[in-house]
UniProtKB/TrEMBL annotation:
Name under which the protein is recorded: Tetratricopeptide repeat protein
Keyword Ribosomal protein tagged: no
This protein's record includes keyword Metal-binding: no
Protein species of origin: Krasilnikovia cinnamomea
Highest classification ranks of the organism: Bacteria, Bacillati, Actinomycetota, Actinomycetes, Micromonosporales
Keyword tags: TPR repeat
UniProt region (Disordered), positions on chain: 321-354
Pfam families, alphabetized: TPR_19
TPR repeats: 199-232, 233-266
PROSITE patterns (alphabetical): TPR
InterPro entries the UniProt entry points to: TPR-like_helical_dom_sf (IPR011990), TPR_rpt (IPR019734)
Amino acid sequence: MEDPRSSADRDLEQARAALDRGEMHHAADHLAGAIAQAPTLPETHELLSRLAARADGGLELFPLGQHAFVGTVVARAHLLAAAGRPEDGLPLLAAASGHTPGMDWAGVPWVSEPSLGARIDPDMLARMVMRLCTAVGDPAPEQDRAALLPYLTVVRHAIAAQPTHHLLLGAGSALARRIGDAALAVDWAARGVRARPSKLGEIWLGYAYRSAGRLPEALDALRRAVVHDPDDLSVYADIAGTLAAQGRLDEALAWVDRALARDPDFDCAVHTGHRLRYQADGDVEHLVRLADFQRYHPDDTHEHTDLAECCQDVPWLSRVPAAPDSGPDPRRRFPTVSRPPAPRPSAAYPTVARHAVPRPSATAVQRLQRVAHPLWPHPPAAYDAAVGLLLVEPQELLALIAHPPAAPDTEVGRALAEHDPARWTRCVYVWACLGLLHHGADEPWPGSRRRRLLVELAAGGTDAITEAALFALVTYAWVEPTARADVADLAGRTLAEVVATPATTEPTGIAWSVAQLALATPALGPAAEELATAVVRAEESALAAIPRQRGRRPGRRLWGWLSARLTRSPR
């Protein structure tokens, strides 16, 4: 992409030319473009002042509409400030910051003037700051915090003028906490509670204490919030989360149960409860039930991340694990696509060798490269992300597995190609198999073609394709409860067969990976679960016994890099 400064300079040049010709609207359009690229560039503000002087203030050149361009909104804010109305311009800057928090929209002198904090209505400022806090995240990403500091300066000046305004103190505390100033957050929230005790004030204080690591005081504040309003069940979930952070899971679950007794479908309590129960015993069924709840309750009060947090960095629940084998088993044969579906897989199904499978088309390769990634938040998210592969016919998906394409020329693709090319090949297998799930979705599962193809791929060898096909089956069990018994049986049998094959000399091989897949399978039977647990423990013990070369952790560094990018841009 073009450098923002270069783009802004080009817009400024065109704005000057338009202004010289007297084309005010044309000049305004280019100025809006420049300010959107470089919001604090002095040349932009100088030209904006010239335009305002020639257009009687210039406000009509930057109208606000339902879908106004962010540069138009910001330019209007600066013109309002220049016209002596900075209190009207500040909310427009805050709206821009809510849109793109990392841009320095407010990093201009008039925002930091003490007079603005003194003249602005404290109720309006408090509401503005609360909306901004909702938009920027909790906490705000490190790279966005500097751009939010000017708003904290405004709040400082406003509090100096209105030192007992409880809403402003609480909202300011929430902003300070989000940008990493926990001490200031505690100070302001405590002052707000002293000025006027309330449920909201105690919640702000509890969050501030929690950010400062003062968990006992955080719990005291949140319990006081419950006294103010025993019907606000979200506070019960907050208390549970705070207790869990102290390792007091039994007490935390007791608060969850209190909330669920009042409302069994209250989303915050349901999410928190399943997350804490999973933390307590590691049983994947808690996460499966949470996924079911999310599917049947799409209109929750706000976005929850409990499922993704529990799945994070767990093999197959959120990522393609590394393994010594990445190519297909030399004995592998590929299923055909043309045969009609039958109720159960059997040896009667014809298969074809890998060399007989035609190579995939360029279109199929491009579509897979657009969706394939070594990370996903959780299995249902991977299933949803693969829906685009519905446009790739099943025979093409099999061709992608038989002839894996190169990694795409993207940031992630280049990193995998350079540091872990085998993992990219495994990504191809995984996403092609996930794509098969979306074909013939109207066919009943037991006799469907998608089931038959995946079962044959899983049974066609003992390699990374086996794992990928089994992962697709397990993923389908997460999203379709009626398939769970069938998939659990398939996973258990596959694990038993893999364990029965001769062991390789590698400490982490197919048995460990299939065991991890079995442990991720909904409704897995106790015998299979016991076997899977034993395999994982044995393989990990064997791995731990192998001395590692000092300082060699390139895979871990790559993994951290990929995880950071998934966090910033979730699939």
